[in-house]
């Protein structure tokens, strides 16, 4: 029995959008104030709401997550080398490039696909200033093991939590680990401000430094204190954030149900492993990712990715290619394939499935049926 393809394309995600009436109310307030950027009332309100939502004391807003990470790294005064993961979005390592820091790639754990703490120590040199971990797909890194290594060698710990908005680890909000953590509020993230981002941090004194860095280093009408850049979140973005944040709990609920439908259907499919199998409070519901084992599934991840397109289902290969494969890093000793064997294996196998609250249970069920059908037919046809 054949299954019909979807009438409309099903993409991997859809942005969480506020009700237009509510957004218009926000806009009316902005128009009335005639203040559209440079730390206006909407910025101040969003800052407070996010501090509360993320349970952190210190937070700074930015025009996007990448600039938040770059300026966060600058504010900590990092230099030399930083140990990081190849299994991430390009922005993580490009932030190091912009700070003149050499990334040192470390292999990942096979189950979480996060930085493998047992492989960090041999990579530490006199030039190492920090460890930069990524909570990939919202799975928290082994933050305790990473902190122990950092303490032993006096290194800073920075996290890219672009996928981990609202995640807790052992009952503690994810932003409370490490010296500094970046969140992205890009349209594709669970919580969005169209484009936007933030860093949360331990040291209160970084607040002023970050405020200067994101506004050209200007500290007064006639005073420029340091060389900064423009990385401010504007008032329209902040207004968007205020409205979208109200929708996050319901969106998380919807995604948790979708996740359950996927899990119930896919957990026993030969050659399929679910990567993002977490408890609710530890889940960001940012992505739903599976791993395809060709030997048992009967086809490769790439073949499945292509096959699903015939049914109008558009999946993504997060994260392929690995950052260590970028042309400009090929002179670095840490990019050698044999040193990053887990990352290389996983990059060939992972597949992000459509995951957003607007997806109906029938649609999710149908996506699962199609995957099962493809897998079964593989064996019938041979
Ligand atoms: C989205 C993302 C970023 C970049 O954030 P922007 O807000 O788009 O600049 C960085 N790291 C990871 C892991 C991401 O997924």
Listed once per kind, the bound small molecules are: pyridoxal-5'-phosphate
Measured as a percent range, the helix fraction is 25-40%
Strand order of the largest sheet: 1-9-8-5-4-2-3
Radius of gyration, in angstroms, nearest whole number: 22 Å
What fraction strand? 5-15%
What class would the helix/strand composition place it in? Answer: alpha/beta
Tally of individual helices: 11
Order of helices and strands: HHEHEHEEHEEEEEHEEHEEHHHEH
Spatial shape: globular
Query: How does the major sheet shape up?
Result: 7 strands, mixed
Task: Tell me the total number of β-strands.
Answer: 14
Low-confidence stretches: none
CA distance, first residue to last residue: 17 Å
Average per-residue pLDDT, rounded, comes to 96
How would you describe this structure in keywords?
alpha/beta; 11 helices; 382 residues; seven-stranded mixed beta sheet; binds pyridoxal-5'-phosphate; 14 strands; globular; three-stranded antiparallel beta sheet
Short structural summary:
With 382 residues, the protein is an alpha/beta fold. The protein has helices spanning 20-33, 41-54, 65-75, 90-98, 143-153, 206-213, 235-266, 294-297, 301-310, 341-347, 361-381, and strands at 59-62, 81-84, 102-105, 128-134, 156-160, 168-169, 172-173, 180-184, 197-201, 218-220, 223-224, 272-274, 288-292, 350-353. Strand 4, helix 5 (143-153) and strand 5 (156-160) form a beta-alpha-beta unit.
